[in-house]
Amino acid sequence: PFDVLIVGGGPAGAAASIYASRKGFATGIAAERFGGQVLDTLGIENFISVPYTEGPRLAAQLEQHVAENNVDVMTLQVADKLVPAKVPGGLHEIRFANGGSLKARSVVLATGARWRQLGVPGENEYRNKGVAYCPHCDGPLFKGKRVAVIGGGNSGVEAAIDLANIVGHVTLVEFADGLRADQVLQDKLYSLKNVTVLLSAETTEITGDGGRVDGLVWRGRHSGQEHRVELEGVFVQIGLVPNTEWLADSGIELSRHGEIVIDHKAATSLPGVFAAGDVTTVPYKQIVIAMGEGSKAALSAFDYLIRTEPV
Ligand code: FAD
């Protein structure tokens, strides 16, 4: 068995594996896709100390850094069950969709998250070409331009407030008849001069000129009428879904959004099971944060292992 088995090979899992192996632990990473969401990212300008990089390049560097440490990397492994140890100090088991299973004295869960997609024509075609999901990451790329934010929950309204400070104009498009964000955020939003709010508005298409986004089509849900807004960017803010479906019957505590609940040391509700990155309740889903959290989870696993007798 492993001392530390990490599930997920994004920034959080990679960082956890390097920290764990440097403690001399038998360390493994099992992941569906090494690199995680970073593989789907184009330009990255907020990875501190690296002014500019690109997703595939950063993913390759993560993989190389892990390979330089003594980590058993297993890719194309889709975990579908966590069977926690029955007794303190016992072995946890991770089962995989291909029928295999691995055991470990401690586990770090780092399976990340995925942005919920709108599912309209143009969204995939113009992804990274005007269609964006992360205002912290991509907001500055639209400096002075016109953008839309889709979604009127807290994340959508926060994104619109954030972007209004950077871009020329923001159109917030909400499907329902009202915004669902906290009142204080709504008040702030309505006080901004360069924001238009569309309610009862269904986004039906993101259009482009073949190279980049040039507009958005929405239909009034009561009038049935279609309208077009010309703009350069669309931020989809209808939810970040944690990859925790596979943990449903493990007994681990999840938040009402499905995130793994962790404490300030990355411990979950199960002794010896730690979690890090976008899959957890940690606020602000970013690469540098996921790496810090992964490192923290591995150090907490170390703390646990030196205090717990194996059984
Ligand atoms: P992830 O990167 O999601 O990695 C999860 C890992 O778990 C993957 O290896 C995946 O294959 C694996 N996995 C999932 N389910 C299973 C399973 N059941 N079994 C086994 N393995 C599984 N952040 C920034 O800081 N700057 C940016 O510029 C930036 N731009 C972004 C642009 C886009 C388009 C997207 C989607 C995200 C962007 N982010 C950016 C966010 C950043 O990518 C994430 O915060 C970060 O990747 C989270 O790391 P993670 O390791 O927690 O999870």
Automatic annotation (TrEMBL):
<keyword id="KW-0521">NADP</keyword>
<keyword id="KW-0285">Flavoprotein</keyword>
<feature type="binding site">
    <location>
        <begin position="268"/>
        <end position="278"/>
    </location>
    <ligand>
        <name>FAD</name>
    </ligand>
</feature>
<dbReference type="GO" id="GO:0016668">
    <property type="term" value="F:oxidoreductase activity, acting on a sulfur group of donors, NAD(P) as acceptor"/>
</dbReference>
<keyword id="KW-0560">Oxidoreductase</keyword>
<dbReference type="GO" id="GO:0051287">
    <property type="term" value="F:NAD binding"/>
</dbReference>
<feature type="disulfide bond" description="Redox-active">
    <location>
        <begin position="134"/>
        <end position="137"/>
    </location>
</feature>
<dbReference type="GO" id="GO:0000302">
    <property type="term" value="P:response to reactive oxygen species"/>
</dbReference>
<comment type="similarity">
    <text>Belongs to the class-II pyridine nucleotide-disulfide oxidoreductase family.</text>
</comment>
<protein>
    <recommendedName>
        <fullName>Thioredoxin reductase</fullName>
    </recommendedName>
</protein>
<comment type="subunit">
    <text>Homodimer.</text>
</comment>
<keyword id="KW-0274">FAD</keyword>
<feature type="domain" description="FAD/NAD(P)-binding">
    <location>
        <begin position="2"/>
        <end position="294"/>
    </location>
</feature>
<dbReference type="GO" id="GO:0032991">
    <property type="term" value="C:protein-containing complex"/>
</dbReference>
<feature type="binding site">
    <location>
        <begin position="3"/>
        <end position="18"/>
    </location>
    <ligand>
        <name>FAD</name>
    </ligand>
</feature>
<dbReference type="GO" id="GO:0102039">
    <property type="term" value="F:NADH-dependent peroxiredoxin activity"/>
</dbReference>
<dbReference type="GO" id="GO:0050660">
    <property type="term" value="F:flavin adenine dinucleotide binding"/>
</dbReference>
<keyword id="KW-1015">Disulfide bond</keyword>
<dbReference type="GO" id="GO:0005829">
    <property type="term" value="C:cytosol"/>
</dbReference>
<keyword id="KW-0676">Redox-active center</keyword>
<feature type="binding site">
    <location>
        <begin position="146"/>
        <end position="160"/>
    </location>
    <ligand>
        <name>NAD(+)</name>
    </ligand>
</feature>
<keyword id="KW-0520">NAD</keyword>
